[in-house]
Design goal:
About 30% of the residues lie in helices and about 20% in strands. The protein is of the alpha+beta class. The strands form four sheets. It has a four-stranded antiparallel sheet. The longest helix is centred in the first third of the chain and has 27 residues. The radius of gyration is 65 Å and the shape is rod-shaped. The termini are far apart.
């Protein structure tokens, strides 16, 4: 009887001890950890600054709290700085790419269209058509005695060059070895300089002697020299074989563009 009583007491004591241990474990929270509580439940806990450890322990707890979804001040600051740097670099990259559109400013080179100014080269066309002074190198001259008016010699000069040439003034004629040239009829001076295109001719007349025979110092000339172009050129047209009679009444007209104008003097 006593043995059974003692066994009963021991069982009750053991049960009481087990109950005590169970309650103690529940109160310390270790039982929850042993039973494998869900990780998400850790995010419902609110850490306090008073219980947060410092120093190395802070890193360890910070790692745990971060894993539980908490924002660690130190780590969030560094991560924010890194994220900001990445964001700023991303912004810089996008800004740089958009800045490349500035290359369109190169269209300003269209101003080089002013290079169309070379059209002024048409001035060479004007220079090509510009007249030069007629000379013996680019002309041919002939002398012929005409029937009317009496005692007149007609000088014909033809432009044999490739450019226009100007006949200025009047021809200075010398028969044989005369020491002077006859004067010009001033009233025969044209209003404009006579210009000869290639192949065109100009004219001048020479009054050889007085028609009524009133002139003095008459003689027969066998050769003729004609100076023109300011005296820089000389032509020597042929005279008739019998020569021409000249006296002191001799005179010449200015160069004319037509034969009729020349023979009017």
């Amino acid at each position: 009887m006593s043995t059974r009583t003692n066994r009963t007491r021991m069982l009750v004591a053991a049960a009481f001890a087990a109950a005590t241990l169970t309650l103690t474990a529940c109160g310390s929270g270790e039982g929850v950890k042993d039973e494998g509580a869900p990780v998400g439940s850790a995010s419902t806990s609110t850490p306090t600054a008073a219980t947060k450890p410092s120093g190395p322990a802070q890193k360890a707890s910070g790692g745990t709290s971060t894993g539980a979804g908490q924002a660690d001040p130190a780590s969030s600051t560094s991560e924010g700085a890194a994220g900001g740097a990445a964001g700023s670099s991303g912004t810089t990259g996008s800004r740089g790419s958009s800045g490349s559109t500035g290359a369109s400013g190169s269209t300003g080179t269209s101003g080089t269209s002013d290079s169309t100014g070379v059209s002024g080269s048409t001035g060479s066309k004007d220079s090509a058509s510009a007249s030069i002074r007629c000379s013996s190198a680019s002309t041919r001259m002939a002398a012929a005695v005409v029937s009317r008016p009496l005692n007149h010699l007609l000088l014909t000069i033809t432009n044999t060059g490739s450019k226009n040439c100007d006949l200025t003034g009047y021809p200075a004629v010398r028969f044989d070895g005369a020491q002077s040239v006859p004067p010009a009829f001033e009233d025969s001076k044209p209003q404009a300089v006579v210009t000869l295109a290639p192949g065109e001719s100009g004219y001048a007349s020479v009054l050889l002697s007085a028609a009524d025979g009133s002139g003095s110092g008459g003689r027969t000339a066998k050769s003729l020299a004609v100076f023109f172009g300011g005296g820089a050129s000389v032509a020597r047209p042929s005279l008739p074989a019998q020569g021409v009679y000249v006296d002191d009444s001799i005179g010449v007209s200015y160069w004319q563009s037509t034969m009729a104008d020349a023979l009017a003097w």
